C-alpha cells in the first residue's frame, strides 16, 4: 500500500513514516503543508493519503482543503484525515457529502499501529472509517435530542457502529448477535430518525452523518 503523509509536526510525521514502513506500507512522499501534498499526490499517485486537518500557515483547515483538492483531482485515492480535536463543522460536512474512501481519526488513535493500518486499508479500498470517539462526541452534540432519545441502548450502539462505516455482518460480530437481529435494529433506527435506509454501506454512513451534523 502506497502512502503519502501530510503532517507539520516533524516528530509525529517521522514516527508515522517509521511505524507504517515497519508495518509493510510504502511511504512514497511526506510533507508539512497543503500545496506539497497536492504536488506529491499528483506525482506519485498513492493508494491513500494521511492528512492533518490543521496545517500551516494558519493551522485552521489548510489540510482539509488540500485533501478536498486531492479528492477532486484524484477521486480514486483514499483520504484519511487526522485531527487533535473533533472538527464537526468541517470534516463531517465533507464526509457527509461523499464518504466513500474517506476516513477521520483522532491523533490519539495513532498509537495503535494495527488499528491505523487497518483504517488505511479500508479507506484505500473505498470504505469509510470514522473514529468511534468522533461518533460519540457528535452524538452528544446532536441538537435534535428528542429523536435520539427514542432509540434504545442497543439501537444507539448499532447507530454508532453504522456511523463508523461497519456493515451489518461486522456489527453482528461485534455485538454477538445474529444478522437478522441487526437488520431489525437498523430498520428501527432509520424509522425513528426518519432516514430512508440504503443498501450500500457508504450511503448508510452518508445518511447517519447528515443526521448527526443537523
TrEMBL record:
<dbReference type="GO" id="GO:0006355">
    <property type="term" value="P:regulation of DNA-templated transcription"/>
</dbReference>
<keyword id="KW-0804">Transcription</keyword>
<protein>
    <submittedName>
        <fullName>Two component transcriptional regulator, LuxR family</fullName>
    </submittedName>
</protein>
<dbReference type="InterPro" id="IPR000792">
    <property type="entry name" value="Tscrpt_reg_LuxR_C"/>
</dbReference>
<dbReference type="Pfam" id="PF00196">
    <property type="entry name" value="GerE"/>
</dbReference>
<dbReference type="InterPro" id="IPR058245">
    <property type="entry name" value="NreC/VraR/RcsB-like_REC"/>
</dbReference>
<keyword id="KW-0805">Transcription regulation</keyword>
<dbReference type="GO" id="GO:0003677">
    <property type="term" value="F:DNA binding"/>
</dbReference>
<feature type="domain" description="Response regulatory">
    <location>
        <begin position="2"/>
        <end position="122"/>
    </location>
</feature>
<dbReference type="InterPro" id="IPR011006">
    <property type="entry name" value="CheY-like_superfamily"/>
</dbReference>
<dbReference type="GO" id="GO:0000160">
    <property type="term" value="P:phosphorelay signal transduction system"/>
</dbReference>
<dbReference type="InterPro" id="IPR016032">
    <property type="entry name" value="Sig_transdc_resp-reg_C-effctor"/>
</dbReference>
<feature type="modified residue" description="4-aspartylphosphate">
    <location>
        <position position="52"/>
    </location>
</feature>
<dbReference type="Pfam" id="PF00072">
    <property type="entry name" value="Response_reg"/>
</dbReference>
<feature type="domain" description="HTH luxR-type">
    <location>
        <begin position="144"/>
        <end position="214"/>
    </location>
</feature>
<keyword id="KW-0597">Phosphoprotein</keyword>
<dbReference type="InterPro" id="IPR039420">
    <property type="entry name" value="WalR-like"/>
</dbReference>
<dbReference type="InterPro" id="IPR001789">
    <property type="entry name" value="Sig_transdc_resp-reg_receiver"/>
</dbReference>
<keyword id="KW-0238">DNA-binding</keyword>
